[in-house]
Amino acid sequence: MTGFRISRRCALAAGAGAAILATSWRSGSASAAAAPAVLDVFDYQGVRLLPSRWRAQQDAVLDYYLAVPTDSYLRGFRVRAGRPAPGAELGGWYSADFFNPFGQIVSGLARFYAATGRQDAKDKVHALAAGFRECIAPDLFFFYSDRPNATHYGYDKMLCGMLDAWLYCGDTNARDALTPITFWAAANLSQDTRYNSGPAEWYTLSENLYRAYLATGNTGYRDFARIWEYRGFWDHFHPAPGEDWFADPTNGEQVWWYHAYSHVNSLSGLGAGFLANGDEYYRAALGVAYDTIRGAQSFATGGYGPYEMMLKDRSTLAGLLRTAYSRNHFETQCGSWAVFKACKYLLRLTGDARFGDWAEQMLYNGVGASMQSLPDGRVQYYSDYNSRGGVKVATSPWSCCSGTRPQAVADYTDMVFLRAPGELYVNLFLPSTVDWAAAGVRARLETTFPESDVMRLTIERAPATALAVKLRAPGWLAAAPTARVNGAGVPIAADARHWLTVSRVWRVNDVLEVTLPTGARPRLVRFDPATPYPVALAQGPVTLAYGATINPARTTPPQSIVDSLQRIPGTLDYRIGATGAAVVRPYYAYQPGERYFLYLDPAAGPGVAYTGTWGDNWIWGYTRSDAAGGAAEAEFEGTGIRWEWRQFNDAGVARVEIDGRFIGTVDQFNPAEDPWRVGIAAGAQFTGLSAGRHRIKITGANISLHDIQSLGPEAAGQVGYSGPWNLNMHLAYTNSTGSAAEIELQGSGIRWKWQRFDDAGIARVEIDGRVVGTVDQYGPQRGVPAQSDFTGLGAGRHRIRVVCTGTKQAASANTYLNVQAFEPL
């Protein structure tokens, strides 16, 4: 390529930023020589996926992004630049210029062209790049609007998009946009690179800057990249594992959390940094980081980062699989993309096949398992692993995950094969073809994996000399692999770098058949090795999920579930016994709205389904509906239900129904000042239901939910309410005849605290099933504290029950019964 010419306009516009680059910005006449890697990728060239679930996903995702009008993608840029701006706004994050995904979408479309050869993808990239370039302002400002929320992030993604449009589509507009946007960045981006702080995701910039240096030979990109290296974080993983990577190296204090996706994404700066600089530091730190983060943070799916956070305490992570509200366990699209990139760098730089395992999990359980995006731009932003049950949903229109989705799905093609002189490597087991013209090799990989354990590689063009075919030996192998060439068995075993090798002089139409056993039955995978639950089902790299309405481990031990499963031939589906419908299927097979249990847990509480907008506060342990109101519904088994919530000074009143019948209201107001929004814990039990399955529905605006747990007849220690009741921070009250409140306490007596009111009635009191008297709660004034003591019961457990009789004395205005508290004596 011809070198970039730094125009006087660019230099003047960059101002102070030009000084940052002045000593190193040189027009490169050719790409820079990369440090030597062990393996090389095909970079999409000569590789195509064959028909399969994953190829179908590629086609659907590409069609989705091509269907969006070019004018809509460009509208905001044109409005900001004062140019004619036809087309409709896309809405969501895109129109708000909140982590705008334009650059990632261009990158994804360019990669899709490289992966599929579809001309319409290339045409779209050309149109987008041309439209973008003409909207770069005289001062080099280039964002979608004049109010981007995250300029470091936006520059990084735009640099990636323009770089990929040039590299994969040969787009010169994109190439010529690289210089002005980088000069703007040098002049304007804050260099506040504080550890785990500073501007949003500054620490991811080095990768694409190093890629730009390698592509252009311009040392300015390399030197600018070095400013953004995340050495404070990376140093935790070098020179050896074992360091406390949650310690802030600047002050030694503990870091409470890391943003999950972007910190994994920052690791690709190590991969690109090695290629650009050749320093062993980068390669060594990347390998240790992979092992450390994957081992400490990932779920059975390979997903990581609930609520987008990496946390030090694994028991806290496990707890987020069990709450009544946590559904955001993995930032699916972005998180998968970050893993794909890190794994691909490691495969190239080390030649070790084990680094393909995490990428394989992301293919089958991450982005590859996600639902198709909706027409309004909503994407499956999160994956739900809750042991109370999960569903796949699409949220956050045109968010960051709308950008990384096409990048990640296109990248399937570039992760199937790798190469080295005289060696063809198979990393992912996807039906595909590879045409390695320079080596005289063309081959076809056919398989229905993971439904089948067999891979067939047919040589369609063979070199004259020996070629080593190497397949990744996955960490999940359940037995020794076997291999056959043209039907005859050949020895095969994993080498020191975890590759299964068959080397020979191949002939056209030779067939290599390799069997990689995934096991006769699913295996149980603990989340925390220190505790038996929760536990997931896995078959090879695929996480399975149980289709049910309640967690099956509540009634059947997980190992017994596994022992009872019978595989349906030709699938990864399982049923109980020899007949009947499938109850266990791959997580990727579940469709939107289908309920599944990915983790089995005998302690799992009832699953809660939310409608309306709810905001989770996992730190203090609750979710809360917004001012427009929402509903929370749960199906449970038992004779009662306990609901716990948090009180606030701006809380609303909740309406409670059980089995479609109005039970009462709960006023969650509490006047206490609470600047940290911790909330004051409160709760109530609703009992007296017949044994069996029931449904509770809670509705209201500004109401919260901490937990819901089903109760049996032995429930004790908390007040249980039957019949309609109203609850607030002071009292529970009812005037429904027959409604009762009861509790079991330990002691030789019970004190019932209540208040006198001018509309109170007469209550019947029962202890241990025997009527012991009545209490008249009437008083001419309101809210006068009172109490009734019942003593001489004998040491032990006793149950008190107070019942609204619907009667009163003549002076009272109504028949209300109220309960403030019960205490043991």
Structure description:
The chain is an alpha+beta fold. Helix content is 27%, strand content 27%. It has 20 helices and 43 strands. The strands form 9 sheets. Strands 24, 25, 27, 28, 30, 31, 34, 35 and 42 form a 9-stranded mixed β-sheet that branches. The chain has an 8-stranded mixed β-sheet with strand order 32-26-29-33-36-41-38-39, with no helix packed on it.
List keywords for this structure.
825 residues; alpha+beta; nine-stranded mixed beta sheet; eight-stranded mixed beta sheet; 20 helices
The share of residues in extended strands comes to 25-35%
What's the overall average pLDDT, rounded?
94
**Largest sheet report:** 9 strands, mixed
Residue windows where pLDDT falls under 50 for at least 5 positions: 1-6
Number of strands: 43
Give the arrangement of secondary structure elements:
Blueprint: H1 8-14, H2 16-22, E1 40-41, E2 47-49, H3 53-66, H4 70-81, H5 92-96, H6 102-116, H7 119-133, H8 151-169, H9 172-188, H10 205-216, H11 219-227, H12 231-234, E3 258-259, H13 260-266, H14 268-277, H15 280-297, E4 309-310, H16 314-319, E5 330-331, H17 332-350, H18 357-365, E6 382-383, H19 400-410, E7 417-420, E8 423-426, E9 432-436, E10 441-446, E11 454-461, E12 467-472, E13 482-485, E14 488-490, E15 499-504, E16 511-515, E17 523-526, E18 535-539, E19 542-546, H20 558-564, E20 565-567, E21 574-576, E22 584-586, E23 599-600, E24 608-617, E25 622-637, E26 640-647, E27 653-658, E28 661-667, E29 680-686, E30 693-700, E31 704-705, E32 707-711, E33 720-722, E34 725-727, E35 732-734, E36 740-746, E37 750-756, E38 762-767, E39 770-776, E40 784-790, E41 797-807, E42 817-819, E43 821-824
Parallel strand pairs: 8-12, 28-34, 29-33
Antiparallel strand pairs: 1-7, 2-9, 3-4, 5-6, 7-8, 9-10, 10-11, 11-16, 12-15, 13-14, 13-16, 17-18, 18-19, 18-23, 19-22, 20-21, 24-25, 25-30, 25-31, 26-29, 26-32, 27-28, 27-30, 33-36, 34-35, 35-42, 36-41, 37-40, 37-43, 38-39, 38-41
